[in-house]
Here is the input.
Amino acid sequence: MSKFFQNVLLSFAMAASVSAWYSQAGFSIMNIEILTVPVFFIVVFALSLVIAEDVRNSFKKVLWFEKRKDKRPIWQVGIGMIFFFAQVGFVETFARGLMSLDLGGMPLYIVFSFMNAFLLTVIYEEIFFVEDQEVAEQYKFKKLK
Here is the structure.
């Protein structure tokens, strides 16, 4: 369930990013919508679902996820990144009006996306993260001689 959820969010983030890049291009095909969802977004989302697992595995290889003794920190960063980019992609694709608001020069949608990503990562971790007990005890307790 966790991998499926991550793949869907990653696909959404990829599709939203590509749709946001091309939405301002001026091509008439980019303006076709079904129930206010761009058709281009739907097509890219479907294609992204096919490659999402490979993208996740590529990031794991680049960051040496399987070789790490304690996988939790890098796992948290990965999940947080997925949540952050999914929220940013949502605003860029479906709520462009929110992009003009800023907080002292920093776009407000990025601030809220970062805060929400942090909270969602903590909640998601409590639900889905399974920790290896031997590794956890090795890091949590010092062995006294």
The first strand starts at residue 33 and ends at 34. The helical segments are 2-23, 39-62, 72-94, 108-128, 133-140. The mean pLDDT is 80. The longest helix spans residues 39-62.
